[in-house]
Specification:
Blueprint lengths: L1 E6 L2 E6 L2 E5 L33 E3 L10 H7 L4 E5 L3 H5 L8 E4 L4 E4 L2 E6 L19 E5 L5 E4 L7 H11 L2 E7 L6 H4 L6 H11 L1 E7 L13 H12 L7 E2 L6 E3 L20
Parallel strand pairs: 3-4, 4-5, 5-6, 10-11, 11-12, 12-13
Antiparallel strand pairs: 1-2, 1-14, 2-3, 7-8, 8-9, 9-10
Helix pairs in contact: 3-5, 5-6
């Protein structure tokens, strides 16, 4: 498993010959407006023209920091897009043809070659305007590869003990996960939207995620905690939970990290070399 964190929830995941991109946002602002809204704090770790040929694009929900029409338009119609129910019309605005995407309900599964993709809930919501809250679905994804390797992209979520405990029992354990750790203060306002680092560790534990990479921090300043605080708190939370050092990491934007797969024979197509993304 080769993982390159491009920024926020945008991650290039490469395993078993597949190149998978999550929530591609390369915009300067997470906003419907050109000059107003959260501005990018850190530049993307890779440009769109530096990406390998993509097989799959996973879209968790339609918030502007996760679903950017300009970025999707530049990526184009080559990959297969997977997205929650009722978001297809929005994707078409980026020029993506209906034949190139699949909308999914919670707990629905489909196949891409030898990979089984399951759409699962998260504790969040959707909206693009002030009038369409929760009209489109949102969530995360589980990918199970032919060799049994299981990857979990949480998407965007707040902590919900019952939800994650039940999903862990139903779908876990997992070999690797992308888990959000940022945009959590003030806590009384953000609790139901975003996990803090301590809650991210709880997701890892109850879902049975063996190794994880932290996302959703250090890219857009969306909330009031210091931009560099999430990885510091994550390290403390991992120590308190006796998680082995290196099993839940928060590398810098642009970093490529490698995680053991099920076999040593899986080969990755068009991978990004460590020199291209450090």
């Amino acid at each position: 498993m080769q993982v390159t964190w491009i920024g926020h929830a945008t991650v290039l995941v490469q395993y078993s010959g597949l190149n998978i991109l999550t929530d591609p946002v390369f915009a300067k602002r997470a906003s419907p407006f050109r000059y107003v809204g959260p501005k990018r704090y850190s530049q993307p770790g890779l440009r769109i023209d530096q990406l390998p040929k993509l097989d799959l694009v996973l879209l968790s929900h339609n918030h502007y920091d996760h679903f950017d029409l300009a970025s999707l338009r530049k990526i184009g119609n080559d990959p297969r897009y997977i997205l929650p129910l009722k978001n297809g019309t929005l994707l078409q605005k980026a020029g993506i043809a209906p034949k190139n995407y699949d909308e999914m309900d919670w707990d629905q599964s489909l196949s891409h070659g030898d990979v089984t993709i399951t759409h699962v809930p998260s504790n969040h919501w959707s909206s693009r305007t002030t009038k369409d809250r929760k009209e489109m679905l949102w969530g995360g994804y589980i990918l199970e590869f032919a060799d049994g390797y299981k990857f979990y992209f949480v998407g965007d979520t707040g902590w919900n003990e019952r939800l994650f405990t039940e999903m862990g029992a139903q779908y876990g354990p997992f070999d690797f996960g992308l888990i959000p750790i940022g945009a959590y203060e003030p806590r009384d306002f953000m609790r139901n939207a975003h996990t803090n680092p301590e809650e991210a560790v709880q997701i890892m534990q109850v879902m049975g995620v063996k190794q994880a990479l932290a996302i959703h921090w250090g890219t857009f300043v969306l909330t009031s905690e210091p931009v560099d605080e999430p990885p510091v708190r994550l390290a403390s939370a991992c120590d308190a939970a006796a998680i082995v050092k290196g099993d839940f990491i928060a590398p810098p934007i642009g970093a490529t990290r490698f995680f053991a797969g099920k076999t040593n024979t899986a080969r990755m197509a068009g991978t990004v070399s460590p020199s291209a993304a450090q």
